[in-house]
Amino acid sequence: MAQEPAPIMAPATFQQRLLHWFEQYGRHDLPWQQPRTAYRVWVSEIMLQQTQVTTVIGYFERFMARFPTLEMLAKADQDEVLHLWTGLGYYARARNLHRAARIVVAQHDGEMPLESVETLTALPGIGRSTAGAIIAQSAGRRAVILDGNVKRSLSRLHAVEGWPGKPAVERRLWALADYYTPQSRVADYTQAMMDFGATLCRRSQPECGRCPFQQECLAYARHETHRFPVSKPKKALPVRQTLMLVLQDARGRIWLEQRPPAGLWGGLWSLPQFEEESQLWDWLLQHTINPSLGSAEPMFTHTFSHFRLEITPRPAECDTLNEVREGGVWYDLERPPELGLAAPVKALLERQLPFALNLLPGHA
């Protein structure tokens, strides 16, 4: 059994050095810090999962402009929420955020249940670390976090062996995170831990020369900062293929269909997808009037966390559909509706825009 890593210094010493560093170099003007309400912190924490701060800021500000309160988010249609999430990826985060907001309104009178980590983790999409960040930053109560930045910093500081995704390794890191978390100034401490990992103890090229823990850091002493945290064992990503039908009607609009609520791109709007050419052509013959199929465009790859999707766009034209189809919409490129779009679909639609403009009067 792996030996538990012993803390390298007293909690008070660690906290003092970290907070001193934070006062000088930390991020104090992020949009979710003023005001630092439970709702704003919650939305920011969900957006920041798997996404960098610089990317999140614009999305957060647009999201808050549309949904300044939790109640307004709960009342919104899912399409509105997914539209504002388009480009951030990991769309289950948005669906869970929306679902959780409705639960908070229905079961907690519109107030985030900050009584404990457990009351927050009962909501969809909120894990233990996210719950800790919400409580610490909005309520100022002691709660422990262990996001990717904290895992990296503590793994290096204590040279914790093993991939942090393994339960035994994660338990060791939680124990260390709990050991160092203070009773006071917890909002600053929590932000400091995230900032420290994001801006100084970075994944690549950490600035060890400016680190307040350089003398104690075991990874630095061993010249092994590159090795910690230990990487997840790699395995080849499987590859899938799909044909995406880019179908335009006589008005230059493109046909989109909404994906099922669960699964890949759940709830988002996408181009019709097919595994084989024969299936695509059968669909055109069955559902459209006067269809014509163009040549395939170059294939491109979209990578998910668990597989790679090779996408071949297939442009086609028709006069119109020969029936009313539920769960679909003609997408007007000039006056686009506010829909949540899968990233490669958004890119393909933007690629079509110049061609649509050429069809309009007054455009060369």
TrEMBL record:
SUPFAM superfamilies: DNA-glycosylase, Nudix. Keywords: 4Fe-4S, DNA damage, DNA repair, Glycosidase, Hydrolase, Iron, Iron-sulfur, Metal-binding. GO terms for biological process: base-excision repair; mismatch repair. It is an enzyme of class 3 (hydrolase). GO terms for molecular function: 4 iron, 4 sulfur cluster binding; 8-oxo-7,8-dihydroguanine DNA N-glycosylase activity; adenine/guanine mispair binding; metal ion binding; oxidized purine DNA binding; purine-specific mismatch base pair DNA N-glycosylase activity. Its cofactor is [4Fe-4S] cluster. Residues 47-199 form the HhH-GPD domain. Its EC number is 3.2.2.31. PANTHER family: ADENINE DNA GLYCOSYLASE. Adenine glycosylase active on G-A mispairs. MutY also corrects error-prone DNA synthesis past GO lesions which are due to the oxidatively damaged form of guanine: 7,8-dihydro-8-oxoguanine (8-oxo-dGTP). This is Adenine DNA glycosylase.
